[in-house]
Design brief:
Blueprint: E1 6-10, H1 17-28, E2 31-34, H2 35-48, H3 56-64, E3 68-71, E4 74-77, E5 80-81, H4 89-99, H5 102-116, E6 121-125, H6 128-132, E7 138-143, H7 146-159, H8 167-183, E8 196-199, H9 205-217
Parallel strand pairs: 1-6, 1-7, 2-6, 7-8
Antiparallel strand pairs: 3-4, 4-5
Length: about 220
């Protein structure tokens, strides 16, 4: 695609947004921006520095001294690649508590909008179509059943070496994240009126990608 294009992908944890977003970005020659990874990177830093996640003042002070960037498919936290660390379960359990803080969202949204103003992007998260890129060329809301999402997340954690966890615990964690994400005061997870809904529960990644590409390409 020759002209600059913006694609917003929203949806709950484990629905397949990131995997789908990366493939779509490659297919249309755009940069993939995982906004959830930005919140995860900040959460990782707060945990590593023993910052109380309920202490908003200290948390925001830390954010002001933090740099988060995407380059060549990697996320950088203070100039270090943290692709693996941000996927650890301790981060997953705490990221929604950080992401619900109004001032944190406002700061990161500014960064996300600045990135999208400069190049073609496929951006995924919880509030892309509603808040970050309300004028995106295409908006998609990716969903899947909670059991399917827990199963996928559990398999990823086992592959990453996580041992002391059951699928029921993962389902509980995802359910808690859904509740926090959907009920937070600032930018809750909601489907934009003009978004296409993509249910990945019984679909392969390739089937979901093809469904989205057909819409983008007007097939």
């Amino acid at each position: 695609m020759n002209k600059r294009i913006t694609i917003a992908i929203d949806g709950p944890a484990g629905a397949g947004k990131s995997t789908i977003g990366k493939i779509i970005a490659q297919k249309i020659n755009a940069d993939y921006i995982d906004t959830g990874a930005m919140y995860r990177a900040l959460t990782l830093k707060l945990i590593e520095n023993n910052i109380d996640l309920n202490d908003t003042y200290s948390l925001l002070k830390e954010l002001n001294n933090t740099s988060i960037d995407f380059r060549n498919g990697h996320i950088y936290l203070d100039k270090k690649i943290v692709d693996k660390q941000i996927r650890e379960n301790i981060v997953s359990q705490n990221v929604s508590d950080v992401a619900k803080i109004k001032e944190v969202r406002e700061e990161l949204v500014k960064i996300q909008q600045n990135i999208a103003s400069q190049k073609s992007v496929v951006m995924d998260g919880r509030d892309i179509g509603t808040v970050v890129l309300p004028n995106a060329d295409f908006k998609f809301f990716v969903i899947a059943s909670i059991h399917e999402r827990a199963k996928r997340r559990f398999e990823d954690l086992v592959k990453a070496g996580e041992k002391n966890l059951t699928i029921e615990e993962v389902e509980d964690q995802i359910s808690r994240r859904d509740k926090i994400d959907s009920t937070r005061e600032k930018s809750p997870l909601t489907k934009s009126d003009d978004a296409y809904e993509i249910d990945t529960t019984n679909k392969s990644i390739n089937e979901s990608v093809d469904e989205i590409l057909k819409i983008i390409e007007g097939r």
